[in-house]
Amino acid sequence: MSDGEAKRYIVIPALNAFNAGDETPSVSFSRKMAHFSGADDEEDDLPSLPRPVEQIDGDEASVMVLTETERLNLSALYPGLQIAEEGELRMLPVKGFSSTLTPAATAKVGAKMLDLTVRSAGKPLADADVTVVFSLKNGTGIGDLKTDAKGKIEVLLPPRLKSVDLVIVTPKSNAWPVHRASIDVGDEGATIRLEAVPIDEKFEDALSLMTSKAAPQAGAGVRVAVIDGGISGPADLNIAFSLNTTEQEPADKVGDNGSGHGTHVASIIHRLAPGVEIYNYRVFIDDADTAREAAIARAIRHAVDSECDLINLSLGQITEPIAIIREVRRTRAFGAVCVAAAGNDFGGSVNYPARSNYVHAVAALGHMGGWPDKTARELDVDEGVPAIGGVFYAGFSNRGQEIDFAMPGAGVVAWVAPDKRGVMSGTSMACPAVVGMMARLVAASDKIKTMDRDQARSDEIAKLTAQAARPIGFGAQLEGQGALS
User: Fold this and answer.
1) Sorting pLDDT into bands at 50, 70 and 90, what band is 107?
2) Comparing 98 with 229, which gets the higher pLDDT?
3) What is the spatial distance between Cα 57 and Cα 485, in angstroms, rounded to a whole number?
């Protein structure tokens, strides 16, 4: 990056109990930031600083747009500042092979095509996600495709390709994922028809098979923050508060951002704890699957100050987001608990913020009986980890010593719109399963209800949850304390 290019940085003063009484460079910087935020009306003689473009609770954390030279100068002028490029955290539903495939060369002249039609219950499946894997061995193919209004799509194939290893179709709603393997395309291409199994609301998915049925008021009195893409579900989800914290959209733009993800997450919590009050924080703008770190940190801060008890974070990234980690530490100090998805990197390292010691990290499981016949269940099964009592470990799930719990996250049915259910897989789905069960435990604890909102309270919530978990047998690095049922 040249010195002239600018990026968004999170800047946090180094202020703590050990230097609280000292006039450090961080104190000077914080005083300047307070002036920018309007908290301090007095000018001072501090050196000129770039004006922050966003702030999190006044002077406590700032977002600055800096060139590389400006970043270095700021660091030299105010030693001790934490300065890190602002993170872009991803939603964590499984995208399967689509995010890892390498495109293969195709020829438009004399091109051969894969002509695909997808239907369910005799009707075309429009706007379904399609991934075509040319070669599993070489990791070639194409993702991010969608069926048209007639449930059709034509895919251009490499001229020398003789067979397609795998086609995966994931409907947005109303039907289960479906796939076809080993498709002969010869010299002329191929035409295939896939029939997706409709969602039957009476069918028992993994979440139903692996958790006890919720009482109508389970979780009553507990506030749960869902920090995600907004919620547009049925009225009985019990949304008590909503706020858009992106600062790119109006604060009252709080419905689902088009992904269905936030609605699905909230619906899972509601399935397990129908009595909870959900606080809806939209941090993903329209049609985005990444969210800015500052928006997430701002949402966590607001949720804690609103006395939420549990915070669901079905999102993550590989590197440490310093503003978010600061907020989850504060969350524990103020008596609440954050739960986060471990990530879907097919056995990779646990993502942040789940990787933090101050957050409960959740891996994903599935159940062999939790999928109807002729669906794509086997694509989520980790073939290297034998199933135990019908429960399988999800192959997409990350793992490591940071894992605290494992819950159903493969093939979970939940609302994705006010009148539509959808099937999603991912540690994004396992995370709210933990939150829902934790809400039951918190609601049933007379001790927690009477405690001050401090570290002792959040530690008691963590302790109570760990005691309720039961090992399945996959080992600590895959399941942590086990599952909650």
Assistant:
1) low
2) 229
3) 38
Separation CA 196–CA 122 (nearest Å): 10
pLDDT in tens, 19-72: 556 667 777 787 777 766 655 544 455 556 788 999 887 668 999 999 999 999
pTM over 0.90: yes
3-state secondary structure the chain: CCCCCEEEEEEECCCCCCCCCCCCHHHHHHHHHHHHHCCCCCCCCCCCCCCCCEEECCCCEEEEEEEHHHHHHHHHHCCCCEEEECCEEEECCCCHHHHCCECCCCCCCCCEEEEEEEEECCEECCCCEEEEEEECCCCEEEEEEECCCCCEEEEEECCCCCEEEEEEEECCCCECCEEEEEEECCCCEEEEEEECCECCCCCCCHHHHHCCCCCCCCCCCCEEEEEECCCCCCHHHCEEEEEECCCCCCCCCCCCCCCCHHHHHHHHHHHHCCCCEEEEEECCCCCCCEEEHHHHHHHHHHHHHCCCCEEEECEEECCCCHHHHHHHHHHHHCCCEEEEECCCCCCCCCCECCCCCCEEEEEEEEEHHHCCCCCCHHHCECCCCCCECCEEEECCCCCCCCEEEEEECCCEEEEEECCEEEEECCHHHHHHHHHHHHHHHHHCCHHHHCCCCCHHHHHHHHHHHHHHCECCCCCHHHHCCCECC
Per-residue pLDDT of 317-334, as tens digits, reads: 999 999 999 999 999 999
* pLDDT tier at 388, thresholds 50, 70, 90: very high
Predicted pLDDT at 1: 44
